[in-house]
Each structure stands twice: as structure tokens, then as C-alpha cells.
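[Q] Does anyone have a clean C-alpha cell version of this?
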Amino acid sequence: MREKRFSDKVSFTQAWERGREEFKSRISRHEGSIMLIATKEVISIPPTMSIKGAADTIVRYNVRRLPVVDPGTNRLVGIIGSSDIIEFLGGGEKYRIIEKKHKGNFLSAINDSVKEIMVTDVVTVSTEDSIEDALEKILSTRIGGIVIVDDENRVKGIVTERDFVFLLADKITNKKVEDYMTKNVIVASPTMTLGDAAKIMVRNSFRRLPVVYQGELVGIITTRNIIRFIGKNEVFNKIVLNNIAEVLDTKIEEIMSKEVATVTEDRDLGEVAKIMEESGVGTVCVVEGGKLVGILTERDIVRAIGE
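[A] Here you go.
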């Protein structure tokens, strides 16, 4: 569960400024400045947990990724995120596990252990690193969250794109949405299947797709929607023959979010960061006259911070 680390926006900004100074001086040898904005109470799981159990945990604690640790030593052995589960369900290479090992048996597949699909080459930073160190690593790897470890590879925290976005919330940046948004947006239709949406997400490293019908924005499908579909057991209403195809044929209009955070392209990034913070979303759709003209994500704002 994410803890509230600062009492107000001023103290958060002051923490950022202290981080910049520490980056220059490199005087911190114990708990570096990255720990000022990191989540220290990290939800982790053992490698023996089932994939269904991981989805349940992601939904319960409202997180996007889970460090996988050895239960005896608390040392990091992997990480599993929403995108890994989406890839497993039909979006990419990990789907072959269902096809080959489980012969398309959905229940058998989701009760397999997370060690089958977790990422073992985990991108990390040290507790001694600065805020800038983590920012540079997030930008260079295009990974949305980085685990913080000590000298013995034990998990001590996690820092995400969202932590950096909150640095700008409600501040005037003089940077406009139109300069950072993606204009050529790949969209889904309400009748697109979950399987097809998953393939698009994995192929393009997306975490969401705006849903458009007859030129109008009608919703958004995210990895969180899909994980909630599994984690809250709604998926079992679709299963008759226990075949993965029954799940993948689900229309995304059945699980998408119909309320979408929207902004216009002339808004300041600080205003958008505040909207993201208050609404708990990682994306806003950019609209003009009810028409979708772009999309702005947490990653886009982090890119602006890194300039």
C-alpha cells in the first residue's frame, strides 16, 4: 500500500530540490535522496504464488507491478507487472505457455506460478542513489517502475513514473500538453476483443487504448481493467469450456472504463499532473470539440521533467 510521504506539495518540492543538491555533491551514503519520494512499504510476492494470485494482489493493493522475492531472504529474484500478465493472456511470447504447456486450459494456466512469466533481469537502483539517478534510468529503459535495493539485493522501496509526475502537480511549468502528447493515437472500437486489444498493447508497449465509436471518445481500456477482470473473478462468468479463447473473445466494451479524464491541448503539464493525482489515472485523453486529438501519459510528463 502506498504511504503518504509528504504532508503537502511544498515539502514534496523541497524534497526534490534536496535531491538535486545531493546529486551534485554525492554525500549521501546510506539512505539516498531517492528514498525521499519512494514507496517504502512495498507489496512483494514469492515466486511460488499463482498468476491468478498475483492478479488478485495487483487489484487489491492498486499497484501495477510486484517485486518477486525469496521469502527467506527478501532478496529480489524477479518482478511481475500488469503488462506481463497481459502478454501471458494472449498479447505476446508468454502466451505460448498457455498454448504449449497448458494446451489452452485457462484455469490450469492462471494457477501456474509467477516464476513462469516474471521478468528476472530486473532494473534496479540502490538506496544510495539520487532522484536524478532513478529519473535517468526510467527515461533510458522506458520502464514505469524501478525497484530500490540495498547492497544485498533486498527490496527497500520502489519508485515509479507516478512519483515523478506528482512533483509537477499543480505547478506552473510553462510546458503545454500539445508539445508532449501523442497525436497519432492508436485506438480501439467497443467491439474489439480483449485478445486483439492485448496484442496491440504488447506490440506497442502500451498500457491503455482509447475507445472510439463513430469518431467519438466513449471509453478507455487499460491493463488495469484487464487485470481487474481477472483478479475480481469476473472472467469466470465467461468460461464454459475452460478454454482461453472464451476469455480472449470478450468485447472490451464489457470491461473498459467509460469515464475518461480529458484535457485540451493548451493546458499546462502541472495542471494535468494534478488531474492525474486527484483522479488516480496515468493517462489523459486530449480532446477538441468532443473529438480525440491526442493522448498524454505519465511517461510523457516524466520526459518533460527530464529535459
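[Q] Thanks! Anything notable?
[A] The chain has two domains: 9-165, 177-224+251-305.
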